């Protein structure tokens, strides 16, 4: 059997890595186009944040906000009245760690270019409240959100983040390592010789005191193999000397990112509602 067909890593149903370096994605990505016609009370558009890398992000805006477009007919009110930005970053293993973090920080910098109201995107200039900026992510996205919060803290106030929500964060450690996820990390970070003690993934073993936000909500799921690390993260954050407030919400009887797999379930609705309450709460700001 030649190297073109020999499999080195088989992570079905996600992807396969062949010995010749070829990567086969087994799940086809579905691209949903943005729309100025309200969907559940939301309009959306894409904007390029890195022309050099050809990377974009998607902006979601409540219908009643200022879009520069003719107002449409009334639609349902979304759970949270905010402008949301979803970032497209380059994925591992095609683009090894730390590329995803670098791309994400480029997006953060691009967004904050609008703080004076003179950035390249009118929706952000006219609607974004930079006094209340929140980071959020699911799984690996939660890991990235944490690191963006740490980077914001290092910038000493230039990037003010009010709060952060981590849904089932993808954190690993020597104690809480899980074989399947450890394998994914090894493939995503082939240039690292630190394995699960790499600070990018071993967040709970790192100094958390400089986290650049005042509030954190950690979501964990009872049947999720990564749930322990979410609990430990909250405990370590409290002990680190960080001066903010951290909360944990556990959904018992559910697995990793169940709210994405079954978004219409009652438990998924509870997760969304708790996130909305966290976002709306201004008592700690």
| Cα gyration radius (Å) | 20 Å
Note the main sheet: 4 strands, parallel
List low-confidence stretches. 71-76
Instruction: Specify the structural class.
Output: alpha/beta
Nearest-integer average pLDDT: 90
Shape: globular
Describe this structure in words.
The chain has a 4-stranded parallel sheet, with helices on both faces. α1 (99-112) crosses α3 (140-154). The model is unreliable at 71-76 (pLDDT under 50). The protein has helices at 99-112, 122-127, 140-154, 179-188, 227-239, 258-261, 266-280; strands spanning 7-11, 15-18, 23-25, 42-50, 55-62, 84-87, 134-138, 163-167, 215-221, 245-251. It is globular. The longest helix has 15 residues, at 140-154. With 285 residues, the chain is of the alpha/beta class.
List key phrases describing it:
single chain; 285 residues; alpha/beta; 4-stranded parallel β-sheet; 7 helices; 27% helix; globular
